[in-house]
Amino acid sequence: MEPKIEPVGSPTLLGEGPYWDEETQTLYYIDVTKPILFSYKPETGAQHSAEIETGGPNERISFVIKIKDKKNKFVVSIKNRFTIVTWDGESPGPLTPQHLVDVE
């Protein structure tokens, strides 16, 4: 069977950093132009988003990765920082990131 490829999720200017969570069957992704985290469940068509508090208009996010064995915990990059964000995949936020480490 051929895979079906179609646009999904909320409209974004530049959707990036897709992460598929096999356990919850959820696609997580970000909009590089805005500090927003998105979730999409193909089975139900449910789409949600939450704004992330970045600390400034020029501090963009570039990826989201779920932390293994940590419910609702994600590593999110903000500019040159890795942060941890807690999100249930549905609440609108704003989400307050916890600083993890700066990267060069």
Head-to-tail CA distance between termini: 44 Å
Beta-strand fraction estimate:
over 45%
**Roughly how much helix do the residues carry, as a percent range?**
under 10%
Count of individual beta strands: 8
- Strand order, biggest sheet? 1-2-3-4
Q: How many domain units?
A: 1
Shape: globular
Element string (H = helix, E = strand) = EEEEEEEE
| Radius of gyration from the alpha-carbon trace, in angstroms | 14 Å
Number of helices: 0
Mean pLDDT: 90
Major beta sheet summary:
4 strands, antiparallel
- Report the structural category: mainly beta
Uncertain spans, ≥5 residues at pLDDT below 50?
Answer: none
Briefly summarize what is shown:
By secondary structure, the protein is mainly beta.
